[in-house]
Structure formats: structure tokens, C-alpha cells
Write a structure and sequence with these properties.
The protein is of the alpha/beta class and about 160 residues long. Helices cover about 40% and strands about 25% of the residues. Strands 1, 2, 3, 4, 5 and 6 form a 6-stranded mixed β-sheet that branches. A two-stranded antiparallel ribbon has the order 7-8.
Length: about 160
């Protein structure tokens, strides 16, 4: 199955997760960074979309791309990267990340963890994240087990 993992990333964590996921999905899987422009998805049987969540919101470029993408006949998977630990808030973030009709079509949906990279944040981001998360140090919470499960579920 030819699969494109299409993502938007800000500080690189979602790009890394997309790469790990493409590797787990196996041969024929590629990553497509929306920062490089809109990818041609016509040759892919399956498409996984991923976005980080910042202050409860997904990256806007993913929403713009989804608004014009032709996804008819494609198998769809969705993932979010973030640092929220509360399951109810995670579900709300996932809901806000993707259009409801796309989420209803998706065969696999998952929250794959994330990272705080204070060394890559601007001053405003450091201030906001520091107040919300009550930390000022880098943290890695990428859920590698969830990435493996996502790939297994998506392939089945």
C-alpha cells in the first residue's frame, strides 16, 4: 500500500513523528511536509495526516490543505502531536484538529505525544508554555508505542 504521511510541523517534533510513522508503515510510505508546498496525493492509496497542537489549536496550513485536497477513495488516518495528558482534553484537541467528516472516515486516529523544546521556542512561546505546563525545561513525551500501534492498526 502506497502511503503518504502528510504533516505540518513548527519545531520539528511532528516531522519526526511522521518519519517514525512512515518507517513503521513500511515500504511505499513517504512523508510530505506541507512547508514544502501541497503534495500531489493522486498516486497514494492511503494518506495519514498529522498536526501538532499549540494552545489547543492545530497548524492552520493543514486546515487549508484539507479544504482543497481530493481524498476520494483514499484510506485515511489522523494523528495529533501534543503534550496534553488529560484524556478529555486530548479528545477535545483531536476533535478540533480535523474536520468532522474527515474524522468520521478515518480508520485510525491517535494522539502520539509530543515534546517541549524550549531551546527552539521564541520568548512568547516560552512564557505561555511555561505558565500552562508549569515547566521551563525540555521534555520528550513522544509515544513510540502508540506510533507502532497506529501503524499496525492502519495496515489492517
Amino acid at each position: 500500500m502506497e502511503t503518504a504521511v502528510v504533516f505540518a510541523s513548527r519545531h520539528g517534533t511532528t516531522a519526526e513523528v511522521a518519519g517514525l510513522l512512515a518507517t513503521e508503515l513500511g515500504p511505499g510510505s513517504v512523508t510530505c511536509d506541507l512547508a514544502d508546498g501541497p503534495p500531489d496525493l493522486s498516486r497514494y492509496d492511503a494518506i495519514v495526516f498529522g498536526t501538532p497542537i499549540y494552545a489547543g489549536k492545530p497548524r492552520p496550513e493543514l486546515g487549508r490543505f484539507l479544504g482543497q485536497a481530493n481524498l476520494e477513495g483514499k484510506r485515511i488516518g489522523l494523528f495529533v502531536c501534543g503534550m496534553e495528558v488529560d484524556p478529555t482534553k486530548r479528545a477535545a484537541e483531536m476533535s478540533a484538529a480535523f474536520p468532522p467528516d474527515l474524522a468520521a472516515r478515518a480508520t485510525t486516529i491517535a494522539f502520539l505525544g509530543g515534546r517541549f523544546r524550549f531551546d527552539l521556542m521564541n520568548a512568547a512561546e516560552r512564557f505561555i508554555i511555561g505558565r500552562i505546563a508549569k515547566t521551563k525545561v525540555n521534555q520528550d513525551a513522544i509515544d513510540r508505542d502508540a506510533i507502532v500501534r497506529f501503524a499496525q492498526d492502519f495496515r489492517e
